[in-house]
Amino acid sequence: MSASEIPAVSIKGLRKSFGTLEVLRGIDLEVAYGEVVCVIGPSGSGKSTLLRCINLLEEPTGGSIRVLGVEVTDPNVNIDRVRRHIGMLFQQFNLFGHLSVLDNLTIAQRRVLRRNRAEAVRVARQNLERVGLSDKIDAFPAQLSGGQQQRVAIARSLSMDPAMMLFDEPTSALDPELVGEVLSVMRQLAADGMTMLVVTHEMAFAREVADRVVFMDDGRIIEQGTPTEVLGGPSEERTREFLHRVLEPTKLSSEEFLETARPAGVPEIAVPTSDPHNYGGGVSGVL
Amino acid sequence: MNHPSTASPGPGAAQVVLTTSHRGLGRHQRQRLSRGIQYGIFLLLLAALAFAADWDRLGEAFARLDIAGEMFPDVIVIALRNTLAYTLLAFAFGLVVGLMLALMRLSSVAPYRWFARAYIELFRGLPALLVLFMVGYGIPVAFQDYVFVGGVYGQVMLGLGLMAAAYMAETIRAGIQAVPRGQLEAARTLGMSYPRAMISIVLPQAFRIIIPPMTNEIILLTKDSSLVYVLGVTFAQVELTKFGRDTLNTEANATPLIVVGLMYLVITLPLSQLVRWLELRAGKGRR
């Protein structure tokens, strides 16, 4: 990233508390245009909150955030205008249940971007094709598998021609055999040059697709770097512990697991001791 | 791992096999026998009532076809029509005001919430008769030169509508809260303003959820329209119950009550059908 370039996202000293619980304790992060950044870390570390602060789904308690050149932490910001340029994917897909796939993709184009029906439908078809679901255009969300719903959600975001996209654990609610189809669409997006900030537990995806991996724990960024640096040879002990638990869950002895499962400040994780495979699988704690 | 819930039976794992007992009657036989006894008792009770009743006198008092015949066509073209008009006017008023109250109740502006709460507690707690009375006689006293728009129809719309709004507000609020929060977040993320997201995404889904309680509300209103007589109505403004009572008084016979009773069912039964159809249609998009 050259110094003269304006970053897509620039976060300085970001803090966020829910009541007395401090979830983000001073985050500094920049994302350049075209960059793919994966944020990893244990449940309750503040990853999702960080993501949700960027488009103001959560109101930051302190610090500043500039997105696409706009200071979103300015109280007078027109957040709707900023949000239409930032796509967001959720763990629970959040497709509009009362609308068909086509209407899911056209409603914001028409109501927000004021495109006419023909234009909106054209864009919708194009993006459905991009995620490989042209044949589902008349289906309702309830008739689709989780993987298909998430791909429709991606197409819905793309239909707004976003300048960047946020992914909040997009595959955590999916059955294991459906994860691949969503990741492959995301991989294609990255290859097309989309600016992406991805909160994920998919280490293989992070290793392969990310330009940079950010490890968070306890509301702070512990370390960041290229996937090889962070995932291959982490310099921080906490990163090593986390990766060990996530990448080799079957190799944990039960003593070691019980010891490391509850780091200070993360009391809300209920650890199913009989099944370490589940660890990190979508429990987002306070988030 | 030697956790007790481990599936494969190792040494020391308790093996429990349940054997089927064949003593006495089977489960199905017992069920049939007990249900047979219940039906028998019910039929016996019906038969006893039918024998004990004096059918000739009952017919003389409640089912005089000549009296019933004389009630037509006025019972339909005047009374039934007015009952429908009063009900629909009050329902429409209640729906609009109820929706506003529900949104106020969920508002982030505290005074709106207070007002909505106070309104709901007040009008939910007052008898409909009292509210009608206050509208019919209180408003003309307070504003002497004011002539009610629509005359009695306007008074009923306000009198019954004010009360219906309080009930509907709570139902609509529950409906809005039953729509997953992610729906609003997804809509806002696509750049929709809060009102736009409410109108296009949240309310359509909320109203699907509250179809059954709203049917209750309109059926209750149909019956509450029988209170309109306190406003003092002309023959052309008379609704079913008043019409029935007047005829009962002139004929000294209770047949009119049966006739208007059937007329109420003429309204409510198709309504139930309509709602079933609506629910079926709405069910298409459900998760």
Descriptors for this entry?
heterodimer; A: 287 residues; alpha/beta; six-stranded mixed β-sheet; 10 helices; 10 strands; 21% strand; globular; B: 287 residues; mainly alpha; 12 helices; flat
Walk me through what this model shows.
The complex is a heterodimer of chains A (287) and B (287). With 287 residues, chain A is an alpha/beta fold. Chain A is 34% helix and 21% strand. Chain A has ten helices and ten strands. The radius of gyration of chain A is 19 Å and the shape is globular. The two termini of chain A are 31 Å apart. The model of chain A is unreliable at 264-287 (pLDDT under 50). Chain B is mostly helical. Helices cover 74% and strands 0% of the residues of chain B. Chain B contains twelve helices and no strands. Chain B has helices at residues 27-52, 55-62, 65-71, 74-105, 110-125, 128-142, 152-178, 181-189, 194-209, 211-224, 240-251, 255-283. In chain B, helix 4 runs antiparallel to helix 11 (240-251). The radius of gyration of chain B is 28 Å and the shape is flat. The chains are: A alpha/beta (287), B mainly alpha (287). At the A-B interface, helix 2, strand 6, helix 3 and helix 5 of A face helix 8 and helix 9 of B.
Helicity range of chain B:
over 70%
Low-confidence stretches of chain B: none
> What oligomeric state best describes the polypeptide chains here?
heterodimer
Number of strands of chain A: 10
- What does the overall shape of chain B look like? flat
Chains forming the largest contact: A-B, 34 and 27 residues
What proportion strand of chain A? 15-25%
What's the overall average pLDDT of chain A, rounded? Answer: 88
Summing up helix and strand content along with how strands pair, one would put the structural category of chain B as mainly alpha
| C-alpha geometry of chain A | globular
